[in-house]
Amino acid sequence: MVVVILLTWQILLTIFLTLAGLEDRKLAAMSGMLWGLNLLWIIGMGGLSISLRKYVAESVVHSPKRIWLKFFCFVTALALVEEAITTTMTNCAPLFGVKMGEVYITASANYFDVVLFHSVVVFLPQFAMWGWLLKRYALSPFAAFLMYGLTGFINEALFAGPNPLMLAQWILVYGLLVYLPANLFNHLPDRRRVRWWLYPAAVVLPILASIPMVMLLLLVIAPGHPSIHFPPMGAE
Q1: What is the C-alpha to C-alpha distance for residues 152 and 130, in angstroms, rounded to an integer?
Q2: Does 60 score more than 60 pLDDT?
């Protein structure tokens, strides 16, 4: 039911932007990019996740070693795929009737710049934290989906400012990164029972885990690297 509400929210928001785009070419371009994200990642990956979840859970029954590493590699691979989709949408700006950089949904049009200096590199400590949580506690894949989705919303709010209208989108986008890989832990024995405080902790701990990486990026790896490579979308 929660997923249905989130998906309905996201589709209605995109429809609203599409209608508003009848009078504004930038909103039209943004709605086109969001439709691509909706279809290719949220609906496409969502459908695959539901179809493959039992296979993923059963794949480790006879090979339970290094589940944390399998999870980390799996979720990182999915993050790379998701960023490939979003960066492609940014590069499709001319197809949606605007110049490159007028409308965008990633910080750069360069895929490697996006994943190495803006997104996936920052998420790696968060994925490591989630692997530890899932190995230690009996968190369900759906709980992982929802909790990391909320973490993703906070990630985006810290980067670009809070926008409650985008809550459903970020829960769906980030949540699908961990949902399918979290099924690797379904049959893992001796995980601890989940207490209520673990749910808010699971939202905050990944953000805290990523702080050293953010500082490393800002001060050592790429000091002075722009947070966004395009002008503000409201600028003419």
Answers
A1: 13
A2: yes
